[in-house]
Design brief:
The protein contains six helices and three strands. By secondary structure, it is mainly α. The chain has a domain of 106 residues: Arc Repressor Mutant, subunit A.
Length: 154
């Protein structure tokens, strides 16, 4: 005789990853990025595009290769990313010397950057608003230390 009943679900489950900081950081990062992606969708901008726009705003005329290096974007991905921003009229290339060009934001790109910053602040508050300013600064200091050590391993 076949038993059609469902197996008894164990209520006292244990997450074997619970003690690992990396696991929690990945989950926080994934949730924060998913939230930011939804907010940026309202602007028809992807997170990678948003980071490039903000980087160019901070360093007008920056070379495409330097953007990729600082943001951890592969060289092969930078050309289509910049081309996409150009097609949206958010940035343009300007000759720096005979061989290379720098990236500048257009007027529309500057307006978009301001909207992106609003969305990022909104997301920061949504995801991390329960932390005090002091706790955020302390956490950023710790994360910066970890990042520097991880970068040195590359």
């Amino acid at each position: 005789m076949r038993n059609n009943s469902k197996p008894r679900q164990i209520l006292d489950t244990v997450n074997p990853l619970e003690p690992y900081l990396g696991y929690h950081l990945r989950r926080i990062s994934a949730a924060s990025m998913a939230s930011l992606t939804l907010l940026l969708n309202e602007l028809d901008i992807r997170p990678s595009e948003a980071t490039v726009i903000l980087f160019v705003q901070a360093t007008p005329g920056v070379r495409q290769s330097l953007i990729g290096k600082h943001l951890g974007i592969r060289r092969a991905n930078m050309a289509p990313l910049i081309a996409g921003l150009e097609s949206k009229s958010l940035c343009r290339k300007e000759a720096l010397d005979g061989r290379s060009s720098g990236i500048q934001l257009t007027k529309a790109g500057v307006k978009c950057a301001a909207k992106i910053e609003v969305k990022i602040r909104e997301n920061e508050e949504r995801c991390f608003g329960q932390l005090t300013v002091r706790d955020r600064k302390a956490l950023m200091k710790i994360i910066s230390t970890i990042n520097l050590e991880l970068i040195s391993l590359e």
